[in-house]
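Design job #97: recover the sequence.
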């Protein structure tokens, strides 16, 4: 199996953490990528018309995107338990994944405003509005710590990857301030081998 890779893509990281948790990490080969929001990677576009990472190629040549599809495929392949099969547990897990991915979506848009948009065109209020989505989401997790209290699943992986990305790209955001429960949870979660691993080409 192969995945188009960017070292600081939180969505690629989400897929790699999932593979690691399922015992599949040694089977996934990293492919270099030049994908970015402005100069698109034509090699990826030939396989995924969106031209984004992660783009994943299965052993039998099936091309999968985005991270939600890739992670569910890996879970199915390994007969794992990261996606509950049915009932309220499934919907809670998928909703938590959406929350983690939503934090990432907002943080990436704020990041693009900082580094991809010409300085004279940057919109500070729009950037602040994106990061406020992270603020309200993290406040929700602090108020509802039971959301992070269950066994490891795809929702918890998504949130952990979101917190990793905020640390990497937005250290001044200081997401831990006023959120001792989420901060304490993350300090333990990040010790898992899958979450402490680093990947590079």
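Job complete. Output follows.
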């Amino acid at each position: 199996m192969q995945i188009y890779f960017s070292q600081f893509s939180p969505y690629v990281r989400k897929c790699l953490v999932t593979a690691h948790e399922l015992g599949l990490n040694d089977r996934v080969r990293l492919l270099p990528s030049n994908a970015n929001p402005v100069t698109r990677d034509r090699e990826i576009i030939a396989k995924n018309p969106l031209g984004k990472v992660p783009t994943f190629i299965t052993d039998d040549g099936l091309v999968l995107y985005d991270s939600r599809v890739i992670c569910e495929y890996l879970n199915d392949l390994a007969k794992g338990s990261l996606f509950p099969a049915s009932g309220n547990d499934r919907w809670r897990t998928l909703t938590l994944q959406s929350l983690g991915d939503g934090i990432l979506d907002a943080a990436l848009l704020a990041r693009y405003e900082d580094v991809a948009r010409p300085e004279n065109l940057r919109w500070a209020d729009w950037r602040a509005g994106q990061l406020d989505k992270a603020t309200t989401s993290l406040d929700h997790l602090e108020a509802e710590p039971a959301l992070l209290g269950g066994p490891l699943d795809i929702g918890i992986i998504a949130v952990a990857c979101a917190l990793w990305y905020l640390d990497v790209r937005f250290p001044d955001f200081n997401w831990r301030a006023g959120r001792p429960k989420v901060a304490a949870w993350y300090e333990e979660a990040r010790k898992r081998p899958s979450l402490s691993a680093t990947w590079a080409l």
